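Hi R.,

Here's the chain you asked about this morning:
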Amino acid sequence: MFAARLPLAERYAGWLAGAGVERGLLGPREVPRLWDRHLLNCAVVAEAVPAGVSLVDIGSGAGLPGLVLALVRPDLTITLVEPLLRRTTFLEEVIADLGLTNVTVVRGRAEDLHGVARFDVVTSRAVAPLPKLLAWSMPLVAPGGFFLAMKGASVEEELAAAEKALRRWARGSSAQVVTVGAGVVDPVVRLVRIDRPLV
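And the predicted structure, written out as tokens:
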């Protein structure tokens, strides 16, 4: 998955297991399953992202999935949006240490970018229930772009519960459940994708 950038991914894993745990960005119990539950789990999201696009990761936390995608896909232009200073400090330190030039950090909330910036793809992982997530994310999706949220096994139930919000924010586009990571991670990763029409 990481190919030539595997040494950088290993270095990032070291950051997560060290400073990430020390600063409360990751629980100590997550360290033994860093690769399968976090790094590979996020890396396979790249399967659903087209080449050369701009991507914003909402509520990046420790950089999952945004920083992982920056490692796997140097062709992407990635913005990590995170409101908490200790998290943005961590992200900036990791980016500088890894020498990543395709990713920037914005300290703030997604709403702060409404009417200011738009992106081809808007991602998130374990940030909020779908209705809130749609309200934060859909205004950031450029025409022709799409929203892509990592969700768990109960994604269908979450979609059913978010029917009203989907009608408001999807604007005629249907929500699709996309699976990625077959043969790489078990279970596969389930994503909610909503396209924004060109017009």
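The CA atoms of residues 125 and 160 lie 19 Å apart.

Let me know if you need anything else.
M.
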